[in-house]
Specification:
A: 219 residues; MetI-like fold; 81% helix; B: 246 residues; Rossmann fold; 6-stranded mixed beta sheet; 39% helix; 25% strand; globular; binds adenosine-5'-triphosphate; binds magnesium ion; transmembrane helix (chain A); transmembrane (chain A); transmembrane transporter activity (chain A); cell membrane (chain A)
Protein backbone atom coordinates (compact mmCIF):
# COMPACT_ATOMS: atom_id res chain seq x y z
CA UNK A 1 0.00 0.00 0.00
CA UNK A 2 2.75 2.43 0.89
CA UNK A 3 4.39 1.51 -2.43
CA UNK A 4 1.18 2.52 -4.17
CA UNK A 5 0.96 5.78 -2.26
CA UNK A 6 4.53 6.69 -3.03
CA UNK A 7 3.89 5.89 -6.68
CA UNK A 8 0.92 8.26 -6.54
CA UNK A 9 3.02 10.98 -4.98
CA UNK A 10 6.01 10.50 -7.28
CA UNK A 11 3.90 10.45 -10.42
CA UNK A 12 1.84 13.43 -9.34
CA UNK A 13 3.63 16.13 -11.38
CA UNK A 14 3.45 14.06 -14.57
CA UNK A 15 -0.16 13.08 -14.13
CA UNK A 16 -1.19 16.52 -13.03
CA UNK A 17 0.15 18.04 -16.21
CA UNK A 18 -1.45 15.25 -18.24
CA UNK A 19 -4.79 15.82 -16.51
CA UNK A 20 -4.61 19.41 -17.73
CA UNK A 21 -4.21 18.14 -21.27
CA UNK A 22 -7.11 15.73 -20.86
CA UNK A 23 -9.24 18.64 -19.71
CA UNK A 24 -8.06 20.76 -22.62
CA UNK A 25 -8.96 18.01 -25.09
CA UNK A 26 -12.39 17.64 -23.53
CA UNK A 27 -12.93 21.38 -23.41
CA UNK A 28 -12.14 21.85 -27.09
CA UNK A 29 -14.33 18.85 -27.89
CA UNK A 30 -17.26 20.40 -26.04
CA UNK A 31 -16.71 24.04 -26.98
CA UNK A 32 -16.70 23.02 -30.64
CA UNK A 33 -19.08 20.12 -30.23
CA UNK A 34 -21.86 22.10 -28.57
CA UNK A 35 -22.34 24.76 -31.25
CA UNK A 36 -21.79 22.18 -33.98
CA UNK A 37 -24.34 19.91 -32.32
CA UNK A 38 -26.75 22.83 -32.01
CA UNK A 39 -26.37 23.56 -35.74
CA UNK A 40 -26.97 19.93 -36.64
CA UNK A 41 -29.97 19.85 -34.30
CA UNK A 42 -31.33 22.97 -35.99
CA UNK A 43 -30.79 21.35 -39.39
CA UNK A 44 -32.57 18.21 -38.23
CA UNK A 45 -35.62 20.26 -37.21
CA UNK A 46 -35.51 22.56 -40.22
CA UNK A 47 -38.36 22.95 -42.63
CA UNK A 48 -35.86 22.65 -45.47
CA UNK A 49 -35.77 19.01 -46.44
CA UNK A 50 -32.15 18.83 -47.71
CA UNK A 51 -31.00 20.22 -44.37
CA UNK A 52 -32.82 17.43 -42.60
CA UNK A 53 -31.22 14.91 -44.95
CA UNK A 54 -27.84 16.39 -44.20
CA UNK A 55 -28.44 16.12 -40.45
CA UNK A 56 -29.58 12.53 -40.70
CA UNK A 57 -26.57 11.60 -42.83
CA UNK A 58 -24.15 13.44 -40.56
CA UNK A 59 -25.49 11.86 -37.40
CA UNK A 60 -25.61 8.42 -38.99
CA UNK A 61 -22.08 8.69 -40.32
CA UNK A 62 -20.52 10.03 -37.14
CA UNK A 63 -22.33 7.65 -34.82
CA UNK A 64 -21.83 4.71 -37.11
CA UNK A 65 -18.03 4.79 -37.07
CA UNK A 66 -15.65 4.27 -34.13
CA UNK A 67 -14.09 7.36 -32.62
CA UNK A 68 -10.59 5.90 -32.94
CA UNK A 69 -11.16 5.59 -36.70
CA UNK A 70 -12.20 9.22 -36.89
CA UNK A 71 -9.13 10.31 -34.95
CA UNK A 72 -6.83 8.24 -37.18
CA UNK A 73 -8.42 9.62 -40.32
CA UNK A 74 -7.72 13.16 -39.15
CA UNK A 75 -4.23 12.37 -37.90
CA UNK A 76 -2.83 9.84 -40.39
CA UNK A 77 -5.33 10.00 -43.20
CA UNK A 78 -5.10 13.64 -44.10
CA UNK A 79 -1.32 13.99 -44.10
CA UNK A 80 -1.25 14.69 -47.85
CA UNK A 81 -3.38 17.78 -47.48
CA UNK A 82 -3.05 18.71 -43.86
CA UNK A 83 -0.66 17.94 -41.05
CA UNK A 84 -2.64 18.17 -37.85
CA UNK A 85 -0.84 17.94 -34.53
CA UNK A 86 -2.10 15.03 -32.44
CA UNK A 87 -3.84 17.32 -30.00
CA UNK A 88 -5.92 18.98 -32.70
CA UNK A 89 -6.61 15.80 -34.63
CA UNK A 90 -7.92 14.18 -31.46
CA UNK A 91 -9.88 17.15 -30.13
CA UNK A 92 -11.49 17.96 -33.47
CA UNK A 93 -12.43 14.32 -33.99
CA UNK A 94 -13.87 14.33 -30.48
CA UNK A 95 -15.82 17.49 -31.29
CA UNK A 96 -17.35 15.93 -34.42
CA UNK A 97 -18.06 12.73 -32.60
CA UNK A 98 -19.79 14.44 -29.68
CA UNK A 99 -21.64 16.92 -31.86
CA UNK A 100 -23.68 14.07 -33.35
CA UNK A 101 -24.80 12.87 -29.94
CA UNK A 102 -25.32 16.41 -28.69
CA UNK A 103 -27.48 17.13 -31.74
CA UNK A 104 -29.75 14.23 -30.88
CA UNK A 105 -29.93 15.29 -27.23
CA UNK A 106 -30.80 18.88 -28.12
CA UNK A 107 -33.34 17.80 -30.69
CA UNK A 108 -35.22 15.63 -28.23
CA UNK A 109 -34.98 18.48 -25.71
CA UNK A 110 -36.71 20.81 -28.15
CA UNK A 111 -39.27 18.21 -29.07
CA UNK A 112 -40.18 17.83 -25.41
CA UNK A 113 -41.34 21.45 -25.23
CA UNK A 114 -45.15 21.44 -25.54
CA UNK A 115 -46.40 23.15 -28.70
CA UNK A 116 -48.90 25.05 -26.55
CA UNK A 117 -46.08 27.01 -24.89
CA UNK A 118 -44.74 28.09 -28.26
CA UNK A 119 -48.25 29.19 -29.23
CA UNK A 120 -48.77 30.99 -25.93
CA UNK A 121 -45.57 32.93 -26.49
CA UNK A 122 -46.33 33.74 -30.12
CA UNK A 123 -49.86 34.82 -29.22
CA UNK A 124 -48.34 37.45 -26.91
CA UNK A 125 -46.61 38.94 -29.95
CA UNK A 126 -43.21 37.41 -29.22
CA UNK A 127 -41.22 36.74 -32.38
CA UNK A 128 -39.83 33.34 -33.32
CA UNK A 129 -36.42 34.36 -32.00
CA UNK A 130 -37.74 35.82 -28.79
CA UNK A 131 -39.72 32.65 -28.22
CA UNK A 132 -36.64 30.55 -28.87
CA UNK A 133 -34.56 32.62 -26.47
CA UNK A 134 -37.07 32.95 -23.67
CA UNK A 135 -39.25 29.87 -23.81
CA UNK A 136 -38.23 27.00 -26.07
CA UNK A 137 -34.49 27.30 -25.55
CA UNK A 138 -34.49 27.43 -21.75
CA UNK A 139 -37.03 24.63 -21.48
CA UNK A 140 -35.23 22.43 -24.01
CA UNK A 141 -31.96 23.03 -22.20
CA UNK A 142 -33.46 22.04 -18.85
CA UNK A 143 -34.69 18.79 -20.32
CA UNK A 144 -31.44 18.12 -22.15
CA UNK A 145 -29.12 18.91 -19.28
CA UNK A 146 -28.90 15.45 -17.65
CA UNK A 147 -28.16 13.82 -21.01
CA UNK A 148 -25.72 16.57 -21.92
CA UNK A 149 -23.89 16.04 -18.63
CA UNK A 150 -23.73 12.36 -19.40
CA UNK A 151 -22.32 13.09 -22.83
CA UNK A 152 -19.69 15.41 -21.32
CA UNK A 153 -18.56 12.58 -19.07
CA UNK A 154 -18.30 10.25 -22.03
CA UNK A 155 -16.27 12.90 -23.86
CA UNK A 156 -13.77 13.14 -21.00
CA UNK A 157 -13.28 9.40 -20.93
CA UNK A 158 -13.12 9.13 -24.73
CA UNK A 159 -10.36 11.70 -24.81
CA UNK A 160 -8.06 8.87 -23.63
CA UNK A 161 -7.97 7.71 -27.25
CA UNK A 162 -5.79 10.73 -27.98
CA UNK A 163 -2.98 8.66 -26.46
CA UNK A 164 -2.78 6.81 -29.76
CA UNK A 165 -1.90 9.96 -31.68
CA UNK A 166 0.97 10.96 -29.35
CA UNK A 167 -0.92 13.37 -27.13
CA UNK A 168 0.53 13.49 -23.60
CA UNK A 169 -2.80 13.20 -21.88
CA UNK A 170 -3.56 11.02 -18.87
CA UNK A 171 -3.72 7.67 -20.55
CA UNK A 172 -0.56 8.25 -22.55
CA UNK A 173 1.32 9.09 -19.37
CA UNK A 174 -0.01 5.92 -17.77
CA UNK A 175 1.14 3.87 -20.75
CA UNK A 176 4.61 5.32 -20.47
CA UNK A 177 4.83 4.93 -16.72
CA UNK A 178 3.79 1.32 -17.10
CA UNK A 179 6.36 0.65 -19.81
CA UNK A 180 9.23 2.02 -17.75
CA UNK A 181 8.19 0.63 -14.36
CA UNK A 182 6.67 -2.73 -15.34
CA UNK A 183 3.90 -2.03 -12.86
CA UNK A 184 0.79 -1.91 -15.00
CA UNK A 185 -1.64 -2.44 -12.15
CA UNK A 186 -0.29 0.50 -10.17
CA UNK A 187 -0.34 3.04 -12.97
CA UNK A 188 -3.59 1.96 -14.57
CA UNK A 189 -5.26 2.25 -11.20
CA UNK A 190 -3.69 5.65 -10.66
CA UNK A 191 -4.88 6.90 -14.03
CA UNK A 192 -8.33 5.47 -13.40
CA UNK A 193 -8.48 7.49 -10.18
CA UNK A 194 -7.61 10.67 -12.07
CA UNK A 195 -10.41 10.08 -14.56
CA UNK A 196 -12.75 9.26 -11.74
CA UNK A 197 -11.90 12.50 -9.94
CA UNK A 198 -12.51 14.57 -13.08
CA UNK A 199 -15.79 12.81 -13.75
CA UNK A 200 -16.94 13.29 -10.16
CA UNK A 201 -16.23 17.00 -10.27
CA UNK A 202 -18.03 17.31 -13.59
CA UNK A 203 -21.00 15.38 -12.22
CA UNK A 204 -21.15 17.70 -9.25
CA UNK A 205 -21.12 20.78 -11.47
CA UNK A 206 -23.88 19.40 -13.69
CA UNK A 207 -25.98 18.41 -10.69
CA UNK A 208 -25.61 21.88 -9.25
CA UNK A 209 -26.74 23.42 -12.51
CA UNK A 210 -29.66 21.01 -12.77
CA UNK A 211 -30.69 21.86 -9.27
CA UNK A 212 -30.52 25.58 -9.95
CA UNK A 213 -32.55 25.22 -13.13
CA UNK A 214 -35.31 23.07 -11.69
CA UNK A 215 -36.51 25.47 -9.05
CA UNK A 216 -39.91 25.43 -10.66
CA UNK A 217 -40.29 21.75 -9.85
CA UNK A 218 -39.85 22.24 -6.12
CA UNK A 219 -41.99 23.92 -3.56
CA UNK B 1 -69.86 50.85 -33.34
CA UNK B 2 -66.79 49.66 -35.13
CA UNK B 3 -65.81 46.12 -35.94
CA UNK B 4 -62.83 44.78 -34.03
CA UNK B 5 -62.87 41.50 -35.93
CA UNK B 6 -64.08 41.16 -39.45
CA UNK B 7 -63.85 37.79 -41.17
CA UNK B 8 -64.85 37.60 -44.78
CA UNK B 9 -65.28 34.37 -46.69
CA UNK B 10 -62.65 32.73 -44.53
CA UNK B 11 -61.79 29.23 -45.63
CA UNK B 12 -59.50 26.88 -43.80
CA UNK B 13 -58.56 23.36 -44.85
CA UNK B 14 -56.54 20.63 -43.23
CA UNK B 15 -55.61 18.50 -46.21
CA UNK B 16 -58.85 17.25 -47.74
CA UNK B 17 -60.89 18.45 -44.76
CA UNK B 18 -62.52 21.87 -45.07
CA UNK B 19 -62.88 23.05 -41.50
CA UNK B 20 -64.05 26.59 -42.22
CA UNK B 21 -66.04 27.04 -45.37
CA UNK B 22 -66.34 30.69 -46.43
CA UNK B 23 -67.17 31.94 -42.96
CA UNK B 24 -68.29 35.54 -42.43
CA UNK B 25 -68.20 36.92 -38.93
CA UNK B 26 -67.96 40.38 -37.42
CA UNK B 27 -67.36 41.23 -33.81
CA UNK B 28 -68.06 44.77 -32.70
CA UNK B 29 -66.12 46.73 -30.15
CA UNK B 30 -67.17 45.76 -26.64
CA UNK B 31 -69.18 42.81 -27.85
CA UNK B 32 -69.04 39.42 -26.17
CA UNK B 33 -69.54 36.62 -28.66
CA UNK B 34 -69.88 33.05 -27.45
CA UNK B 35 -69.11 30.31 -29.95
CA UNK B 36 -70.82 27.00 -29.43
CA UNK B 37 -71.22 23.90 -31.52
CA UNK B 38 -70.44 20.20 -31.65
CA UNK B 39 -66.93 18.84 -31.36
CA UNK B 40 -65.03 19.22 -34.60
CA UNK B 41 -67.20 22.09 -35.79
CA UNK B 42 -64.15 24.32 -36.17
CA UNK B 43 -64.55 26.59 -33.13
CA UNK B 44 -60.92 26.32 -32.05
CA UNK B 45 -59.76 26.62 -35.61
CA UNK B 46 -61.71 29.84 -36.05
CA UNK B 47 -60.12 31.39 -32.95
CA UNK B 48 -56.69 30.23 -34.00
CA UNK B 49 -57.13 31.78 -37.43
CA UNK B 50 -58.06 35.12 -35.87
CA UNK B 51 -54.67 35.45 -34.23
CA UNK B 52 -52.72 33.77 -36.98
CA UNK B 53 -51.84 30.56 -35.18
CA UNK B 54 -53.35 28.90 -38.23
CA UNK B 55 -52.96 30.31 -41.71
CA UNK B 56 -56.06 30.56 -43.86
CA UNK B 57 -56.63 29.23 -47.35
CA UNK B 58 -59.07 31.87 -48.50
CA UNK B 59 -60.83 35.07 -47.52
CA UNK B 60 -59.60 37.87 -45.30
CA UNK B 61 -59.45 38.54 -41.60
CA UNK B 62 -59.20 42.08 -40.31
CA UNK B 63 -58.51 42.79 -36.67
CA UNK B 64 -58.59 46.29 -35.23
CA UNK B 65 -58.54 47.72 -38.73
CA UNK B 66 -55.48 45.80 -39.80
CA UNK B 67 -55.58 42.89 -42.20
CA UNK B 68 -54.02 39.73 -40.85
CA UNK B 69 -50.99 38.55 -42.75
CA UNK B 70 -49.60 35.04 -42.51
CA UNK B 71 -46.27 35.78 -40.90
CA UNK B 72 -43.59 38.29 -40.02
CA UNK B 73 -43.32 41.40 -37.93
CA UNK B 74 -46.75 42.69 -38.86
CA UNK B 75 -48.35 39.51 -37.60
CA UNK B 76 -46.42 39.79 -34.33
CA UNK B 77 -47.51 43.37 -33.82
CA UNK B 78 -51.13 42.46 -34.46
CA UNK B 79 -50.94 39.46 -32.17
CA UNK B 80 -49.83 41.47 -29.21
CA UNK B 81 -53.15 43.28 -29.43
CA UNK B 82 -55.06 39.99 -29.36
CA UNK B 83 -55.07 38.13 -26.05
CA UNK B 84 -55.48 34.38 -26.24
CA UNK B 85 -56.45 32.10 -23.38
CA UNK B 86 -56.03 28.36 -23.91
CA UNK B 87 -57.80 25.38 -22.49
CA UNK B 88 -54.50 24.08 -21.11
CA UNK B 89 -53.44 27.46 -19.61
CA UNK B 90 -49.97 27.18 -21.19
CA UNK B 91 -48.16 29.16 -18.54
CA UNK B 92 -44.38 29.12 -18.91
CA UNK B 93 -43.35 26.53 -16.31
CA UNK B 94 -39.81 27.85 -15.82
CA UNK B 95 -40.98 31.36 -14.94
CA UNK B 96 -42.58 32.60 -11.76
CA UNK B 97 -46.08 34.01 -12.00
CA UNK B 98 -44.83 37.58 -12.12
CA UNK B 99 -42.30 36.79 -14.85
CA UNK B 100 -44.94 34.99 -16.87
CA UNK B 101 -46.80 38.29 -16.93
CA UNK B 102 -43.84 40.62 -17.49
CA UNK B 103 -41.88 38.70 -20.15
CA UNK B 104 -43.79 39.85 -23.22
CA UNK B 105 -44.45 43.30 -21.78
CA UNK B 106 -40.72 43.82 -21.67
CA UNK B 107 -39.68 41.93 -24.82
CA UNK B 108 -42.52 43.05 -27.06
CA UNK B 109 -43.77 46.35 -25.66
CA UNK B 110 -40.36 47.45 -24.42
CA UNK B 111 -41.63 48.30 -20.96
CA UNK B 112 -39.10 48.64 -18.17
CA UNK B 113 -39.01 46.02 -15.45
CA UNK B 114 -40.64 48.43 -13.00
CA UNK B 115 -43.44 49.35 -15.37
CA UNK B 116 -44.07 45.75 -16.32
CA UNK B 117 -44.10 44.56 -12.73
CA UNK B 118 -46.42 47.34 -11.66
CA UNK B 119 -48.84 46.38 -14.40
CA UNK B 120 -48.51 42.70 -13.52
CA UNK B 121 -49.28 43.37 -9.84
CA UNK B 122 -52.29 45.44 -10.76
CA UNK B 123 -53.62 42.58 -12.88
CA UNK B 124 -52.81 39.93 -10.29
CA UNK B 125 -54.81 41.93 -7.79
CA UNK B 126 -57.64 42.08 -10.24
CA UNK B 127 -57.75 38.30 -10.69
CA UNK B 128 -57.31 37.82 -6.95
CA UNK B 129 -53.84 36.32 -6.98
CA UNK B 130 -51.59 38.99 -5.50
CA UNK B 131 -50.08 36.59 -3.01
CA UNK B 132 -48.99 34.17 -5.76
CA UNK B 133 -46.65 36.59 -7.49
CA UNK B 134 -43.52 34.56 -6.70
CA UNK B 135 -44.99 31.09 -7.13
CA UNK B 136 -44.13 28.82 -10.02
CA UNK B 137 -47.14 27.76 -12.13
CA UNK B 138 -46.83 24.15 -11.06
CA UNK B 139 -47.69 25.18 -7.51
CA UNK B 140 -51.03 26.68 -8.54
CA UNK B 141 -54.41 25.07 -8.96
CA UNK B 142 -55.86 24.91 -12.45
CA UNK B 143 -58.21 27.78 -11.71
CA UNK B 144 -55.36 29.91 -10.43
CA UNK B 145 -53.22 29.06 -13.45
CA UNK B 146 -55.99 30.07 -15.79
CA UNK B 147 -56.46 33.38 -13.96
CA UNK B 148 -52.73 34.05 -14.31
CA UNK B 149 -53.00 33.21 -18.01
CA UNK B 150 -55.77 35.78 -18.33
CA UNK B 151 -53.67 38.36 -16.51
CA UNK B 152 -50.73 37.55 -18.79
CA UNK B 153 -52.86 38.22 -21.86
CA UNK B 154 -54.36 41.40 -20.41
CA UNK B 155 -50.91 42.79 -19.61
CA UNK B 156 -50.42 43.42 -23.32
CA UNK B 157 -53.43 45.78 -23.30
CA UNK B 158 -55.26 43.80 -25.98
CA UNK B 159 -58.20 45.17 -27.92
CA UNK B 160 -59.62 41.67 -28.19
CA UNK B 161 -59.58 38.59 -26.00
CA UNK B 162 -60.03 35.07 -27.37
CA UNK B 163 -60.90 32.23 -25.02
CA UNK B 164 -60.80 28.61 -26.18
CA UNK B 165 -62.72 26.53 -23.65
CA UNK B 166 -60.99 28.25 -20.74
CA UNK B 167 -62.75 26.16 -18.12
CA UNK B 168 -62.88 22.76 -19.81
CA UNK B 169 -59.69 21.48 -18.17
CA UNK B 170 -60.78 22.56 -14.70
CA UNK B 171 -62.28 20.65 -11.84
CA UNK B 172 -65.93 21.72 -11.52
CA UNK B 173 -65.36 23.61 -8.28
CA UNK B 174 -62.71 25.80 -9.96
CA UNK B 175 -64.79 26.83 -12.95
CA UNK B 176 -66.62 29.61 -11.13
CA UNK B 177 -63.56 31.68 -10.21
CA UNK B 178 -62.41 31.79 -13.85
CA UNK B 179 -65.85 32.63 -15.22
CA UNK B 180 -66.12 35.42 -12.66
CA UNK B 181 -62.93 37.01 -13.96
CA UNK B 182 -64.29 36.76 -17.48
CA UNK B 183 -67.59 38.25 -16.39
CA UNK B 184 -65.82 41.24 -14.85
CA UNK B 185 -63.83 41.66 -18.01
CA UNK B 186 -66.99 41.66 -20.12
CA UNK B 187 -68.56 44.23 -17.84
CA UNK B 188 -65.56 46.51 -18.27
CA UNK B 189 -66.28 46.47 -21.98
CA UNK B 190 -63.61 44.11 -23.28
CA UNK B 191 -64.30 42.68 -26.71
CA UNK B 192 -64.35 38.93 -26.31
CA UNK B 193 -64.84 35.80 -28.37
CA UNK B 194 -65.37 32.81 -26.13
CA UNK B 195 -65.64 29.15 -27.04
CA UNK B 196 -67.35 27.42 -24.15
CA UNK B 197 -69.76 24.75 -23.12
CA UNK B 198 -70.89 26.82 -20.14
CA UNK B 199 -74.40 27.64 -21.25
CA UNK B 200 -75.15 29.64 -18.14
CA UNK B 201 -72.22 31.91 -18.92
CA UNK B 202 -73.43 32.22 -22.50
CA UNK B 203 -76.91 33.16 -21.33
CA UNK B 204 -75.74 35.70 -18.81
CA UNK B 205 -72.75 37.31 -20.48
CA UNK B 206 -72.98 36.88 -24.24
CA UNK B 207 -74.30 39.67 -26.41
CA UNK B 208 -74.46 37.17 -29.22
CA UNK B 209 -74.26 33.41 -29.48
CA UNK B 210 -72.85 31.89 -32.64
CA UNK B 211 -73.56 28.24 -33.29
CA UNK B 212 -71.08 26.56 -35.58
CA UNK B 213 -71.59 23.30 -37.42
CA UNK B 214 -70.16 21.64 -40.49
CA UNK B 215 -67.55 24.28 -41.22
CA UNK B 216 -69.89 27.20 -41.02
CA UNK B 217 -72.18 29.30 -38.89
CA UNK B 218 -75.44 27.43 -38.55
CA UNK B 219 -77.19 30.09 -36.56
CA UNK B 220 -76.54 33.23 -34.56
CA UNK B 221 -78.43 35.71 -32.47
CA UNK B 222 -79.06 36.70 -28.90
CA UNK B 223 -78.57 33.94 -26.31
CA UNK B 224 -82.32 33.79 -25.94
CA UNK B 225 -82.87 33.28 -29.66
CA UNK B 226 -80.18 30.70 -30.23
CA UNK B 227 -80.37 28.78 -26.96
CA UNK B 228 -84.13 28.81 -26.41
CA UNK B 229 -85.60 28.99 -29.88
CA UNK B 230 -83.12 27.62 -32.38
CA UNK B 231 -84.41 27.70 -35.92
CA UNK B 232 -81.80 25.63 -37.71
CA UNK B 233 -81.84 21.86 -37.86
CA UNK B 234 -78.23 21.78 -36.60
CA UNK B 235 -79.01 24.15 -33.77
CA UNK B 236 -81.93 22.08 -32.55
CA UNK B 237 -79.96 18.86 -32.73
CA UNK B 238 -77.00 20.31 -30.84
CA UNK B 239 -79.10 21.88 -28.11
CA UNK B 240 -81.23 18.78 -27.75
CA UNK B 241 -78.05 16.84 -27.15
CA UNK B 242 -76.88 19.37 -24.56
CA UNK B 243 -80.24 19.27 -22.90
CA UNK B 244 -80.14 15.52 -22.87
CA UNK B 245 -76.78 15.56 -21.10
CA UNK B 246 -77.52 18.17 -18.53
N1 LIG C 1 -53.69 20.70 -37.06
C1 LIG C 1 -54.70 19.98 -37.58
N2 LIG C 1 -54.46 19.08 -38.55
C2 LIG C 1 -55.47 18.36 -39.08
N3 LIG C 1 -56.75 18.46 -38.73
C3 LIG C 1 -57.06 19.34 -37.76
C4 LIG C 1 -56.04 20.14 -37.12
N4 LIG C 1 -56.64 20.91 -36.19
C5 LIG C 1 -57.94 20.61 -36.24
N5 LIG C 1 -58.20 19.67 -37.18
C6 LIG C 1 -59.54 19.14 -37.53
O1 LIG C 1 -60.37 20.21 -37.85
C7 LIG C 1 -61.68 19.99 -37.35
C8 LIG C 1 -62.11 21.13 -36.47
O2 LIG C 1 -61.29 21.15 -35.31
P1 LIG C 1 -61.49 22.19 -34.15
O3 LIG C 1 -60.47 21.86 -33.13
O4 LIG C 1 -61.51 23.55 -34.69
O5 LIG C 1 -62.93 21.81 -33.61
P2 LIG C 1 -63.68 22.35 -32.33
O6 LIG C 1 -64.97 22.88 -32.80
O7 LIG C 1 -62.80 23.26 -31.57
O8 LIG C 1 -63.94 21.01 -31.53
P3 LIG C 1 -63.86 20.72 -29.96
O9 LIG C 1 -65.19 21.12 -29.39
O10 LIG C 1 -63.68 19.23 -29.90
O11 LIG C 1 -62.72 21.48 -29.41
C9 LIG C 1 -61.64 18.65 -36.64
O12 LIG C 1 -62.15 17.67 -37.51
C10 LIG C 1 -60.20 18.43 -36.37
O13 LIG C 1 -59.90 17.06 -36.38
MG1 LIG D 1 -61.78 23.14 -29.71
Amino acid sequence: MSDFLSAVVESWPLFFEAAGRTLALSAVALLLGLPLGALVAAASMSRVRPLRWFATAYIGLVRGTPLITQIFILYFGLTIVLLLPGFWAASIALAFHNSAYIAEILRSGFQSVPVGLDEASRSLGMSWWQTLRRVRGPLAFRTALPSLGNQFIIAVKDSSLAAFVTVDELFQVALRATASSYEPLTYYIIVALYYLAIVLILTLVVNRLEHALSKHRRS
Amino acid sequence: MSAIVSMQQVTKRFGPLTVLDAVDLEVQQGEVVVLIGPSGAGKSTLLRCVNGLEGIDGGTITVDGQQLVQKGRELNSLRRRIGMVFQQFNLFPHLRVIDNITMAQRDVLGRSREEAEARARELLARVGLSEKEHAYPERLSGGQQQRVAIARALAMDPVLMLFDEPTSALDPELVGEVLQVMRDLAEEGMTMVVVTHEMRFARQVADRVVLMADGGIAEQGTPEQVLEHPTSERGRAFLAELGGQG
